[in-house]
Amino acid sequence: MKTAGSRNHLPKGLVPSALSKQEFQKVYSLLDVHPLKFDCGILCASLCCQEYEPGVGMYLLPGEEQMFTCEEPWLKWKFVRAQDHNFPPDWKGKVAFVTCNATCPRDKRPIQCRTFPLMPYLTPEGDLQVRLDVLSGVLICPMIKEPDKYPARPEFYTAALSAWKVLTKDPLIRSDVWHLSRQLDEDESSIWRSLLLR
Ligand code: SF4
Ligand code: SF4
């Protein structure tokens, strides 16, 4: 019988992980906090939780596959080569990419869905923070488009930071966070961003 965590249902050659299933369970539990006092999905008809553009989905973090059987009917699975996508060069192997077939049970949501609309950010000095994910959410999420009107709760920032502290113990996840942080730096200083935020 296939069970989550047995790993015999997974393809060979995945990007390796330094984190245990228990660490992922801890992260899932830390991230079980709503960003707002109410269900933020009512602001946007849960836009981030549907295929708002054809093929849109999310990558799992290395090792996060341990939390799934790959037979969840609410997800469609693909495994893609990291080097063909926007990952740092030290990610060598395949990464799980899931798209939504239906709405996930709340306790089964992947990390990227739990942490959104925040993203982890490493300062140039290497300090870990969490920030609004303007890289992937500025066009869809009211909490990112209007942060003064819909500010994420401090508890949500605290939970996300605690979770990413655990996750970035894995050097490859830290490397990816560094890679995305430098993209965020570039994005924030770009001309189109200043035009968009006018
Ligand atoms: S995180 Fe943003 S896009 Fe997703 S449901 Fe909440 S308000 Fe909507
Ligand atoms: S994977 Fe699940 S939680 Fe994430 S966007 Fe899709 S349906 Fe929503």
Structure characterization notes:
This protein has one domain. 31% of the residues lie in helices and 13% in strands. The protein has 7 helices and 5 strands. The chain has helices at 21-30, 111-115, 134-137, 142-145, 154-167, 171-188, 191-196; strands spanning 58-59, 75-81, 94-100, 118-122, 128-132. The chain has a 3-stranded antiparallel sheet with strand order 1-3-2, with no helix packed on it. The protein has a two-stranded antiparallel ribbon with strand order 4-5. The N and C termini lie far apart (56 Å). Bound molecules: iron/sulfur cluster (2 copies). One iron/sulfur cluster is lined by residues 48-49, 98, 100, 103-104, 109-110, 113.
Q: What is the helical fraction, as a range of percent? A: 25-40%
User: pLDDT below 50 for ≥5 consecutive residues: which ranges?
Assistant: 1-5
H and E string: HEEEHEEHHHHH
Number of helices: 7
Structural class comes to: alpha+beta
Question: How are the secondary structure elements laid out?
Answer:
Blueprint: H1 21-30, E1 58-59, E2 75-81, E3 94-100, H2 111-115, E4 118-122, E5 128-132, H3 134-137, H4 142-145, H5 154-167, H6 171-188, H7 191-196
Antiparallel strand pairs: 1-3, 2-3, 4-5
The structure holds iron/sulfur cluster (SF4) (2 copies).
Structure summary:
The protein has 198 residues and is of the alpha+beta class. Helices cover 31% and strands 13% of the residues.
Features:
198 residues, two-stranded antiparallel ribbon, alpha+beta, disordered N terminus, binds iron/sulfur cluster
